[in-house]
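Dear Dr. K.,

Following up on our conversation at the group meeting, I've run the structure prediction for Cof-type HAD-IIB family hydrolase from Gracilibacillus thailandensis. I'm pasting the input sequence below exactly as I used it, so you can double-check it against your construct before we proceed with anything downstream. Let me know if the numbering doesn't match what you have in your notebook.
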Amino acid sequence: MTFSPKAICLDMDGTLLNNYNQLTENTLDIIQKIRKTGIRVFIVTGRSYNEVFDSAPSDLELDGFVTANGMITYVDGEKLLEHSLSIELVDKVIESARTNRIYYEVHPNDGERLSLKADQGYMEFMISGDKPDEVGINEWLEREAAIEQDIRWHDHLPEQKYAKMYCFTKDHEKMKAWIKELKKMKSETNFTTSSSSRHNVEVMVEGVNKATGIEALLKHYQLSPGDAMAIGDSNNDIPMMKYVGYPVAMFNATDQIKSLVKETTEFTNDKEGVYHFLKDYFQHKL
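The predicted structure tokens came back this morning:
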């Protein structure tokens, strides 16, 4: 172990979780053993806080959570840093999603994800039937669960704070074209986008990403970016990888991620890659 981190930042989908969105007992156990040595462990994810616990135990104890790609950061269940999208922007994105038949979820800063009843029909139809070959099993299962039980369908968009919008389509070429439409929208309203697969895009506040959330946690614990290790797999992890002192790519990571890191795990997320990497890396410390 040449680098001795004081904090470890862990992505969820494609990293901590297997392809069926499960967090294994081995992975949970190694994380808690590392925390007992005094190393801070953070989850850093595109998921909202509620979505984290769709896959993680409800009593999971960590030193911090960066959620919604940096939009809200938590310590001990309390918000350390919070951003929100404007209602006007959310309305514009929904209108464009409806016109282009893009599936969408609006994630409030507090509470359950929602969509509008006017769009329920085409969204449910999109997620019906068998999983397309080109869509990852983890993303498809998440959409099926969202349609079946997680989305709250509203007649109108409630007046409240919104952390992010998640948008999806089965056709990656259609998503590529729609992202271009969103870029045109940026000339009128400042916001940023991030994708964790070819089939999705998430909308957040301009200048906010996983690195800005990590920065808040490190300041809270009086640590520096050079003290931190991060493990991730997809392109929404790029700001995180560029920010920390010791970035690590999953075996299943994108080429862009692998070009930024010091090490790559021996195993994929579906073979407990994080567990095996951490167990081997800290074998003389645990």
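Two things stood out to me. Residues 115 and 190 are 22 Å apart (CA to CA). The mean pLDDT is 96.

Best regards,
J.T.
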